[in-house]
Write a structure and sequence with these properties.
With 828 residues, this protein is an alpha+beta fold. It has 31 helices and 18 strands. The protein has a four-stranded antiparallel β-sheet with strand order 2-9-4-7, with no helix packed on it.
Length: 828
């Protein structure tokens, strides 16, 4: 018992020595970790030192001042003053978000460490940008820009009511990141300008019309006028629809050269009714076929057939001047309820009721329609175009009277104000009136003088170009706020793809657009207008690269059911789906997750969905989760494929670029990208061919990021049909993969879940692209804090489009013009 205290004392001392030793070892470990730039195992508050440790371990090995891989050295940058190197850090952040840095095959930092660094750096940069004393630029410079051809067509339609097929009269514009409205790329050459002037003269002639034009013959062929965007009216078939300019009021004669009444009388076995409709009104209706016509053709042969066709030759109709919608077609009931169970319905266009026609049992237009006239013209009545132009009527007692000149001046002022998107000055009118006077020379009419004014206005630089000059006295090297009129023009082209309407122009001219609440009121009004559909066709479709769907040519041997009508329907589905979210002001994240789409019979059959009949698109709820959102749309899947196979590389790069905002680095020019199989080689799946291709470590640095995303979409073939077996390789489809962040997924449903799990990422990508589209320039590093601020504001409203748009129009980038870059001076 006497030894017990001693033993206790010894044990206590040993415990204290051991504890001290452990503390010493832990302290040395901490010091060692700090010495090599690593964080201790124990969690520590986030700060520059902790993040520098991650950079030291995973980034500085390549990106240091000695090696400087990719021209980038990070080790010399001061994290305490990261905003001083904002341009470099914004590039690095994009690489980190997309797992492009460190490249696959290199040691990877834990995802939580990457997320922590990205959040810390973004907060650092954003806080510095919000500092009122910060002298960094807040807006980029937008040079003088001309109207691109899409804007030109939209403005002409609004201004003088003439529909222009821009692709027919103007050359293709240069695209930057998919957009054709970037100011720096909208260059002009003498030949380019000549085409704009020619287009101006044609538009002026169509808008004014002619009271006594020469008789002309215009033929509309079937092949050239099969426009899926403007289908035949419901209840008609076997015809044609087109726009025709009737230059004056009077009689026009319409001829159908061939209705399929040939050597075989099958098409006229049953009676059908041919109708001619102008602007929706039936102006001619007559039957063809039936027992009497069949007997006539059988008895008299060619003369009998000619007698039948005589009833449809030079049909007189009275038409008022203007561009009118003309339909020539047949009214007939369908001979079958549906062609859903008919073998290869694509051979008949895939439409209910077309089978009998395709088999030659119904009459149809074969050679098109000819319109001749006008005969006995009666002048030019009021047309939509003339209503827009002739805001007054001149009725002088003799040519050149004061009333006539006053009306011409009034028309010129009104037209120029709307075309120039600002109030006009006396000097503006003085420059334009000589064109009116030149048009009246030689006894020409008042209308001919106004026609020259219209052409002059449409060829004027004030119409063709948009320029930001700022308030008077603004220096070229300073950042300044846009005037109200400049804001109105920028806002209108952003939301409508055309110039300001009367309400917006009047408000801006009075200086009211910059008043509190005025901008929001106008934005909400304009988003509710049908013209806001340009956000779908001119922004979203081009952002997602779906306007290039024609570039994919599916192999007819591999995809016999594919046709051009189906290609068009793919785009129609995508536009209707995108429009239902953007134009109905839903959360933009629904573009990824929405459980519905818009289908007609053709696309529904392509997707394997029953119960949808007819050519009209309608909203359909999707039971198959694989089809939800953009990832399940045939337009996306075909656009990211080749004509003979899928491409996990194209699809993966598309997701990285369009949905995640981290476009992968393009391959070097000499990189082999052909995955075609050699003749006689055992067929392999695309996945197997791709794995063989990326065996090299240098290839895997890019493919390791791109391919996993694309492989998860392999169940969709090159035209978007769902499959479980690769028919060429006779092997099951394997869509399992591991994403660069280490998460394992299998198929599009799980890929979509990963994308939707971080809605802020997708919202930021859309906002960045939408801001670029709105500003008509590529974004700079100093724009990114504004993009993130817009997204944070929109998050409070579930990322609705209206919230994102309001955030953009209230940003410095939208409301200001930055200083122009200093000119490069050649050394002497």
């Amino acid at each position: 018992m006497s030894n017990t205290p001693l033993r206790t004392l010894i044990r206590t001392k040993r415990f204290m020595y051991a504890s001290a030793l452990l503390v010493l070892i832990a302290s040395l470990a901490v010091l060692q970790n700090r010495a090599v730039g690593q964080t201790p195992a124990r969690s520590a508050p986030a700060g520059p030192d902790q993040h520098r440790a991650m950079l030291t371990t995973y980034c500085f090995t390549c990106h240091n001042t000695r090696i400087k891989t990719g021209g980038l050295a990070l080790d010399g940058l001061n994290l305490e003053a990261a905003a001083d190197d904002a341009q470099t850090w914004e590039k690095a952040l994009r690489k980190l978000r997309g797992h492009l840095m460190p490249p696959p095959g290199s040691p990877q930092p834990p995802q939580k460490d990457v997320d922590a660094f990205v959040a810390w750096m973004e907060n650092n940069l954003d806080s510095h940008a919000a500092d009122a004393h910060n002298k960094a630029p807040r807006a980029g410079h937008v040079p003088v820009q001309r109207l691109n051809r899409t804007e030109y067509a939209a403005v002409v339609k609004t201004l003088v009511g003439v529909d222009v097929k821009a692709a027919d009269v103007l050359p293709q514009d240069i695209q930057v990141e998919g957009f054709d409205n970037i100011a720096a790329a909208l260059s002009v050459s003498p030949s380019f300008l000549s085409q704009y002037i020619t287009a101006a003269r044609q538009v002026a002639k169509l808008a004014i019309g002619s009271p006594n034009p020469r008789v002309s013959n215009v033929k509309y062929s079937i092949a050239a006028n099969q426009n899926p965007d403007d289908p035949l009216p419901l209840g008609t078939r076997g015809g044609i629809r087109f726009k025709h300019n009737f230059p004056a009021d009077g009689e026009y004669r319409i001829t159908m050269n061939d209705l399929g009444v040939g050597l075989y009388t099958g098409p006229i076995e049953n009676e059908s009714t041919l109708v001619i409709m102008i602007d929706g009104k039936i102006v001619f209706r007559k039957p063809i076929g039936g027992p009497k016509d069949q007997a006539l053709a059988d008895r008299k042969a060619a003369p009998g057939r000619a007698e039948i066709m005589e009833r449809f030759t030079k049909i007189p109709v009275q038409v008022e001047a203007g561009v009118r919608d003309v339909v020539v077609a047949f009214i007939d009931r369908s001979h079958v309820e549906t062609d859903e169970n008919v073998a290869n319905p694509a051979a008949f266009g895939g439409l209910t009721g077309s089978i009998a026609q395709a088999n030659g049992r119904m009459p149809r237009l074969v050679d098109g329609v000819v319109i001749a006239g006008p005969y006995n013209p009666k002048g030019v009545s009021r047309t939509p175009s003339r209503d827009l132009i002739f805001v007054c009527e001149a009725k002088p007692r003799d040519p050149g009277a004061k009333e006539e000149a006053s009306c011409a001046r009034q028309i010129t002022e009104n037209l120029a104000r709307r075309a120039f998107r600002r109030p006009v000055t006396a000097e503006d009118v003085a420059r334009l009136m000589p064109f009116y006077e030149a048009g009246r020379e030689g006894g020409a009419s008042f209308d001919q003088g106004i026609e020259q004014v219209v052409a002059a206005v449409l060829a004027s630089p004030d119409f063709l170009y948009r320029a930001i000059r700022g308030p008077k006295g603004t220096g070229p090297g300073n950042e300044f706020a846009l005037t109200d009129l400049e804001l109105a023009s920028r806002l209108s082209f952003f939301l409508w793809n055309t110039g300001p309407d009367e309400e917006l122009l009047t408000l801006a001219a009075a200086g009211g657009l910059s008043k509190p609440g005025a901008m929001e009121k106008q934005v909400r009004r304009m988003l509710a207008d049908p013209k806001a559909a340009s956000l779908v066709t001119s922004f979203a479709v081009k952002w997602l690269n779906l306007d290039g769907l024609d570039s994919v040519k599916p192999d007819p041997m591999l995809f016999p059911g594919f046709n051009e009508q189906l290609r068009h329907d793919f785009l129609s589905e995508a536009e209707a789906f995108i429009g239902s979210i953007l134009l109905e002001d839903r959360s933009v994240v629904d573009l990824l997750t929405a459980d519905y789409t818009f289908l007609n019979e053709r696309v529904a059959r392509h997707y394997g969905i029953s119960g949808v009949t007819g050519t009209q698109f309608r909203r359909v709820t999707l039971a198959e989760k694989e089809r939800w959102g953009l990832l399940g749309k045939a337009a996306v899947l075909m656009r990211t494929s080749y004509g003979d196979r899928t491409s996990p590389v194209l699809r993966g790069a598309w997701v990285l670029d369009k949905l995640l905002g981290t476009p992968p680095t393009p391959p070097p020019p000499d990189t082999a990208t052909d995955l075609s199989q050699k003749a006689g080689e055992q067929p392999k799946t695309v996945r197997a061919r791709l794995e063989q291709h990326r065996n090299k470590a240098s290839c895997n640095q890019c493919h390791g990021v791109i391919d996993p995303t694309g492989l998860s979409l392999e169940n969709f073939d090159a035209i978007g049909v769902w499959r479980t077996v690769d028919r060429q390789a006779n092997a099951p489809i394997d869509a399992s993969t591991a994403l660069p962040n280490g998460v394992s997924i299998n198929g599009p449903v799980e890929l979509r879940a990963q994308l939707a799990d971080r809605p802020v990422t997708f919202a930021r990508v859309l906002t960045e692209k939408l801001m670029m589209y709105a500003l008509n320039r590529q974004l700079e590093y100093f724009d990114m804090p504004q993009v993130r601020a817009v997204v944070r504001g929109a998050a409070k409203d579930n990322y609705k489009l209206s919230s994102i748009v309001l955030g953009i129009v209230n940003s410095d980038g939208f409301r200001k013009q930055g200083a122009a870059a200093a000119p490069i001076v050649a050394a002497k």
